[in-house]
Each structure stands twice: as structure tokens, then as C-alpha cells.
Design goal:
With 322 residues, the chain is α/β, with parallel strands linked by helices. It has nine helices and eleven strands. It has helices at 2-9, 15-36, 104-122, 140-149, 163-178, 197-210, 252-265, 272-278, 298-311, and strands at residues 75-80, 98-99, 102-103, 131-134, 154-157, 184-189, 212-218, 223-225, 234-236, 242-251, 284-287. Strands 5-4-1-6-10-7-11 form a seven-stranded mixed beta sheet, sandwiched between helices. A two-stranded antiparallel sheet has the order 2-3. A hairpin with a 2-residue loop joins strand 2 and strand 3. The radius of gyration is 19 Å and the shape is globular.
Length: 322
């Protein structure tokens, strides 16, 4: 991990960048070092015997044979890429900004359409049969060539007014194209380009057992509650708090019933498994990795680039002619 450290150590930081290093990158290095000497980090309430906290090296080609894979032949994927990315201070939505020479969105597309199926098939398992790409219609012409390239495996779905509508449109597209083939759907934010094959297989496995599962990590920050945005109301006990990631994997029939309930009762939901929670059903927490960060600010792009360098992952150009 010395190259990763040197990359940051040789830069003249502003205060924001220093905070980013000490609060994000340095803890990741410590986690990776701990995992390399066999110190598992997992709350006792979580069955995490198949989880390895690392900088994602477990997804590298050299280690793919050691992964505990899951058959994904009955799991459709919904990739959400309809956001505006206003906090990135860029002219383009964040999913179209370049990360290691390729748009952020391409990293997830490459994972779901190429790398994940290849690893599964090598183990005699099936990869995802269909990926629904939720994308604003004005950007769809630019991605039509990719849809054509993966015809039958990749299709557009239009975004909704809110996230729930986008997810529902994506799920409907999966059902339309896959029929009864898919029993579960994995919903992923394109702004999380660093999720690993190991994390995907683990959360899918849990969803098949419990009906719904979400990737997450124990919250490291101290959280304060405020009712006026000016003064502290109370400190929320950190031991019970989890930061949830994606993919979030849910049984399709359960999710469809949840959509009906949310619409009928006018419920407000903040993520996909919140719909399951509203139905009183169990959602399994699947221990993920802190490296599965969401690209939200310009500083996140630097961290993501460093993590990809450490993993030695080179994204492919999905628009390149074969």
C-alpha cells in the first residue's frame, strides 16, 4: 500500500484534502493492513464468515478463484444513472465524468456485462441475464451503441421523478425482458463504481435467504442530531448505526407489493430496502467494504482513482469496435 500512500503524501494539500486523507484514505489503509494479517472486522451480530475487508484485492483476477461465488442467473440488475450530480460542480452529471480514462458509469457497466459474467461462467455459474440502465432519454442516443453491442442483455429504462420511480421503471424493464426468469433484482447506483464481485455475491446470497439484503458498513463517524441545523439536539449512539451502500437486492414480487403499498399510502422512502421495511419484512445487513464509496464530491474522484490504481483494474472502452 506504499504507492497509494505516496500518491497522497507527495501532494500539497488544502485543508479539505487533508481531511479527506485522514478521514477516508488512511482508515482504508488500516483496514486493508488489518485484513492482510487476518484481523477480521465485523460486529458479532453479523454472520460474516465469507466477508473480507480489504481494498478490493479479492476481486482482482489473481484472487477470483478464491471467491465464494453465487449463481446470478435469476437476478436482474437495475443500474441507476439518472442523477444530476449537482454537488460535483461540473457541467456533466457525475456518472459521465471520467474516472481512469472512462466515464464513471462505464465502470459498473463493464462489471455487470463483462467481468462478473466471465468470473461466474468460469466457475460453471450464470451471470446476470439482464441489466436495465435507467438513463435520461437525452443521453440514451450516446449509449445506444453499447445497448446494441449487448443486445438482449442491456436495455434502457427512463428515470422517474424520484428515485422510487426510477427503480420501479427499471424493475418493470427487467420483468418485461426476463419474465419469470428473474426472481430477484439488484439495484445499484452508478455513482458507486468500486463495488466488488465479492460484495455482489455476498449480498445476493443473503437476499436469496432473507428476501431482501443491503450492503453496508458500521458507521465510523460520530453522528449528531439537530432540529434547527444550528445547535446539537443529541448524539446518536454509533454502535447501532450502519451506512448502507448498493447493490440492494430484493425479491421482485416483494418489491412490487412494496411499490403498491408506498403509492397507495403515500409513504416517503429514502432507499430501496426502505420499501421492504415499510412492509414489516426483514432486511439482512450484508457487511460490505468501506471502499464502496459514492462519488459525490470532486475529492471522491481522487480517492476512487487511487483505489483503482491499487487494485490494478483497467476499465475497458465499451464503445470500442471489436
Amino acid at each position: 500500500y506504499i504507492p497509494l500512500f505516496q500518491q497522497y503524501n507527495n501532494i500539497n494539500f488544502h485543508q479539505t484534502e487533508l481531511n479527506m486523507f485522514y478521514n477516508i484514505v488512511f482508515p482504508l489503509l488500516l483496514l486493508a493492513i488489518n485484513s492482510s494479517i487476518g484481523k477480521a472486522f465485523a460486529p458479532s451480530s453479523i454472520a460474516a464468515k465469507h466477508i473480507e475487508i480489504s481494498l478490493g484485492a479479492s476481486s482482482n483476477a489473481a484472487n477470483e478463484n478464491s471467491l465464494q461465488l453465487e449463481d446470478l442467473g435469476n437476478v436482474g440488475f437495475v443500474l441507476l444513472a439518472g442523477g444530476t450530480g449537482s454537488r460535483m460542480k461540473a457541467n456533466l452529471p457525475k456518472q459521465f465524468l471520467e474516472l481512469k480514462g472512462m466515464p464513471v458509469l462505464h465502470h459498473s457497466l463493464d462489471l455487470f456485462l463483462n467481468r462478473l459474467p466471465a468470473v461466474c461462467e468460469k466457475a460453471g455459474l450464470k451471470g446476470p441475464p439482464i441489466v436495465a440502465l435507467v438513463l435520461d432519454p437525452k443521453y440514451q442516443p450516446e449509449y445506444q451503441a453499447i445497448v446494441d453491442k449487448y443486445k438482449g442483455r442491456l436495455a434502457f429504462a427512463n428515470p422517474g421523478v424520484e428515485r422510487q420511480g426510477s427503480v420501479e421503471n427499471g424493475v418493470n424493464k427487467v420483468v418485461e425482458l426476463a419474465g419469470n426468469l428473474c426472481t430477484h433484482v439488484a439495484i445499484h447506483d452508478s455513482a458507486r463504481p468500486l463495488v466488488t464481485i465479492e460484495e455482489i455475491c455476498n449480498v445476493v446470497r443473503d437476499a436469496k435467504e432473507y428476501g431482501a439484503a443491503v450492503l453496508g458498513v458500521p458507521c465510523k463517524a460520530t453522528i449528531k442530531e439537530s432540529d434547527d441545523g444550528s445547535t446539537v439536539l443529541r448524539t446518536i449512539p454509533r454502535a447501532r448505526l450502519w451506512e448502507v451502500h448498493t447493490p440492494q437486492v430484493i425479491e421482485i414480487q416483494m418489491l412490487q407489493k412494496g411499490f403498491e403499498k408506498v403509492t397507495k399510502e403515500g409513504l416517503e422512502v429514502t432507499d430501496d430496502v426502505s420499501i421492504v421495511e415499510a412492509m414489516g419484512e426483514t432486511v439482512k445487513l450484508t457487511l460490505g467494504q468501506y471502499t464502496n464509496l459514492k462519488i459525490t464530491t470532486p475529492e471522491d474522484m481522487d480517492v476512487a482513482s487511487a483505489i483503482l490504481d491499487e487494485r490494478k483494474v483497467t476499465p475497458i472502452d465499451l464503445l470500442a469496435h471489436e
